[in-house]
């Protein structure tokens, strides 16, 4: 996806900026191209009435390039785009790099994350923690093959 300026992000909203996709519209669970700043805020505030937290899990490097791992999460206690709430935690993980100047002001940010599994988790509750280890994984290493 092309980089967005701060002005562009502020114009379309953070959710729409972070959920940009090249998927065809008919395959999108959430379509940032048709949502506005206001509608995206309403959608996520409704789905996460207690909030949608960003948690820094690990910091890998210091200034001027601050790299860290994060988790963005909340409990889906409200409907999302016509899908009923399931009350389970919905989350995604990523890595961010802040480029800062001498005064520690952020000049540039880079985010690396996978949005597909996050959006799919709105359709049904996430699998129990033991499900991946039970052999249902498509990964031959996880299956023990």
Automatic annotation (TrEMBL):
One Pfam family it belongs to: SnoaL
GO biological process: polyketide metabolic process
Name under which the protein is recorded: SnoaL-like domain-containing protein
Species of the source: Eragrostis curvula
């Amino acid at each position: 996806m092309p980089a967005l300026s701060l002005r562009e992000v502020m114009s379309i909203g953070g959710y729409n900026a972070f959920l940009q996709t090249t998927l065809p519209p008919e395959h999108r669970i959430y379509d940032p191209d048709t949502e506005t700043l206001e509608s995206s805020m309403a959608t996520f505030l409704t789905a996460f009435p207690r909030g949608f937290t960003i948690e820094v899990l690990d910091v890998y490097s210091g200034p001027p390039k601050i790299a860290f791992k994060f988790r963005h999460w909340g409990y889906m206690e409200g409907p999302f785009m016509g899908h009923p709430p399931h009350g389970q935690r919905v989350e995604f993980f990523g890595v961010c790099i802040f480029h800062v100047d001498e005064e520690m002001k952020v000049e540039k940010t880079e985010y690396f994350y996978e949005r597909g599994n996050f959006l799919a988790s709105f359709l049904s509750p996430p699998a129990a923690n033991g499900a991946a280890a039970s052999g249902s994984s498509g990964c031959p290493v996880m299956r023990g093959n």
